[in-house]
Amino acid sequence: MKTIIIYAILSISFIYANANIYHLNIEKRVNRSINNYRWQYNLANRYRDGVGVNINLPKAFHLYHKSALKNYPPAQYQLGMAFRHGLGVRANYELARYWFRKSARNRYANAQEIFRRYYSKKQQIRQYQFRTIARY
């Protein structure tokens, strides 16, 4: 019985140690290729979804922003979604529109659809004709 308990404790500690090592390896790999926008985008997806690392939306937003500044359309789209829904940052519809437009101009299909559906319709201003009333 004691050997089973010891085996269980060792296996749990081994799994926990591997998870921490995996997390550190991701950080080191990204630091090596810090100017690679695709690595930054993929790491941001991991931080957003919690795959191999803890969920950290502000860090995901930061990495999306670094990748989007290098004109990577999927990152620009994700920035638009982050600003629209307030993921890792305060919701800001003006900036969401800016990033969706930028991604749509870079021919990213999802951003084109969102921009066409929600942001391209211009509000028509009704112009009323004012009648002049003659004063006698």
Structural class: mainly alpha
Low-confidence stretches: 123-130
* CATH C-level category of one domain: Mainly Alpha
Please report which band the strand proportion falls in: under 5%, 5-15%, 15-25%, 25-35%, 35-45% or over 45%.
under 5%
Distance between the termini: 109 Å
Task: Determine the mean pLDDT.
Answer: 78
Order of helices and strands: HHHHHH
Radius of gyration: 24 Å
Global geometry: elongated
CATH architecture designation of one domain: Alpha Horseshoe
Q: What is the β-strand count?
A: 0
Largest sheet geometry: none
Helix content: 55-70%
Please name the CATH topology of one domain: Serine Threonine Protein Phosphatase 5, Tetratricopeptide repeat
| CATH homologous superfamily title of one domain | Tetratricopeptide repeat domain
Number of helices: 6
In short:
This protein has helices spanning 2-32, 37-49, 57-68, 73-85, 93-105, 109-119. The protein is mainly α.
List keywords for this structure.
single chain; 136 residues; mainly alpha; Serine Threonine Protein Phosphatase 5, Tetratricopeptide repeat; elongated
Describe it for me?
The chain is mainly α and 136 residues long. The protein has a domain at 33-119: Tetratricopeptide repeat domain (Serine Threonine Protein Phosphatase 5, Tetratricopeptide repeat), CATH 1.25.40. Helices cover 68% and strands 0% of the residues. It is built from six helices and no strands. Helix 4 (73-85) runs antiparallel to helix 5 and helix 5 (93-105) crosses helix 6. The radius of gyration is 24 Å and the shape is elongated.
